[in-house]
UniProtKB/TrEMBL annotation:
Keyword field contains Flavoprotein: no
Protein name from the UniProt record: Cyanophycinase
Signal peptide: 1-23
Record keywords, A-Z: Signal
Record-linked InterPro entries: Class_I_gatase-like
Keyword Calcium assigned: no
Top-level taxon: Eukaryota
Length: 414
């Protein structure tokens, strides 16, 4: 712990990342518009989520246009739209079942120049669908393919993305699952694993449109390639926060703060599987069966390395019905406050594995412990993840679901 107090290791971000950077800016501003983020692996039977999406349009049978641009090709994307899988419905069947009128864009990474242009008949047909849509829904897969399909190679908006932005300002909902949610941030990041982001000290590869998000700077047979990741331009419908998905199933709460530092984004949203966060202007509400992490770096201090170090992150975890005010950053839960604390918090020995983070924080807030200390299973170095109580954190529970409001999280090497 001595290391933790050394000024040599603790410098503000402006020093840590060099010229032009400021401490991750935070503000009371929030973006206008309606964004519906699905954390991936949504069950076809999760009527609460799909009904909320339909209801959010204010129409009984809204038009939803599906972009399959995270698929590897137009043909494969159209298959996911039209053809049921053994375990899951096609998008067409799914959205029809929940009362939408679905359509699909003939746009993918292998035809983007034609499909995104307003001077081709294919592009014009796509643009007409966007013009008529109440919801524009982006599929799951790989978000670098979304960016390849929707941006020009120089990073400017394609003609059709310009139309999506106009529809968004007019009140259309932009929605997406998994990669389709991750692309909503100003920068989108991906690939790799929490330990790799820690090991490489939040040094994500800065990728261009048309590249993948894999960090190939040490070649494609390297640890960096398998465990680190990259970031590139995203759509920016969510302005102040980075979006990650599958967060508990894949232990991604550990990579989110590293990606926040790498992209200079002050807040992080990590949506769990079969869960959604509906952002309507300043107010966000959680739907579904798992939870959403909200990570706030406004009081955090990032170290310089060699491994990723941060202290003083504020971490909240919200479940169905909970609300987050994006202007004030206030967490609002209708669940009863936890007032009795018994037992000890769980200390994970493999903290970046699925559900270990959430187990750590929920056992902490019900226990009489002041901290939960988790470790990576990897050694040399080991990543230490400490959740601890400070002043003012609150926790609520009902029917086995928890709300945690402003726990502190530190990550450092031992
Ligand atoms: C449906 O939407 C309206 C406003 O658009 C909202 O007041 C209501 O709570 C929503 N109902 C459900 C079940 O989501
Ligand atoms: C095509 O898109 C560009 C912007 O990308 C816009 O300036 C132009 O007006 C559009 N043309 C038509 C016919 O919509
Ligand atoms: C906390 O709970 C543990 C296990 O129930 C118990 O052994 C310990 O005495 C408690 N500590 C305090 C400070 O209440």
């Amino acid at each position: 712990m001595h290391k933790m107090n050394s000024n040599a290791l603790f410098v503000v971000l402006v020093v840590a990342v060099g010229v032009g950077a400021v401490a991750l800016p935070h503000s009371r501003q929030s973006s206008p518009g309606k964004v519906f983020l699905f954390g991936g692996a949504t069950e076809d039977t999760s009527a609460n989520i799909y009904d909320a999406l339909r209801n959010a349009t204010g129409k009984p049978s809204p038009n939803i246009v599906v972009a399959i641009t995270a698929a590897s090709s137009l043909a494969i994307g159209l298959e996911a739209y039209y053809i049921d899988d053994p375990g899951s419905w096609s998008y067409e069947r799914l959205f029809t079942f929940y009362g939408f009128q679905p359509s699909v864009l003939q746009l993918a990474r292998d035809n983007w120049e034609e499909g995104a242009s307003n001077s081709t008949s294919l592009g014009q047909a796509n643009i007409r669908l966007v013009e008529a849509a109440d919801v524009i829904f982006f599929n799951g897969g790989d978000q670098s393919r979304h960016s390849r399909s929707w941006f020009n190679t120089d990073g400017s908006d394609s003609d059709i993305l310009g139309v999506v932005r106009r529809r968004f300002l007019d009140g259309a909902i932009v929605a997406g699952t998994s990669a389709g949610a991750a692309i909503m941030s100003k920068r989108t990041y991906g690939e790799g694993y929490s330990y790799g982001y820690f090991y490489f000290n939040a040094d994500l590869k800065e990728c261009d449109i048309g590249e993948t998000l894999q960090d190939d700077r040490d070649g494609t047979n390297s640890f960096r390639y398998s465990d680190n990741g990259g970031h590139m331009q995203g759509f920016g419908f969510v302005q102040e926060a980075l979006v990650d998905t599958h967060v508990d199933a894949r232990g991604r709460f550990g990579r989110l703060p590293a990606a926040m530092r790498s992209t200079l984004t002050p807040y992080g949203i990590g949506v769990g599987e079969d869960t959604a966060l509906y952002i309507n202007g300043e107010e966000a509400v959680v739907l579904g069966n798992d939870g959403v992490w909200w990570v706030d770096s406004s009081e955090a201090q990032f170290g310089i390395g060699p491994y990723f170090t941060v202290t003083g992150l504020l971490v909240s975890y919200l479940t169905e019905g909970d609300r987050l005010n994006l202007a004030t950053k206030e967490v609002i839960s209708t669940k009863p406050l936890i007032t009795t604390n018994e037992g000890v918090a769980y200390d994970s020995r493999d903290v970046f594995t699925g559900r270990e983070g959430i187990r750590s924080i929920t056992t902490l807030v019900t226990s009489n412990s002041t901290r939960s200390t988790g470790r990576s299973k990897e050694r040399n170095p080991t990543a230490n993840v400490v959740f601890h109580r400070g002043q003012g954190e609150l926790a609520y529970t009902m029917d086995g679901k928890f709300t945690v409001d402003k726990l502190h999280m530190d990550i450092y090497s031992i």
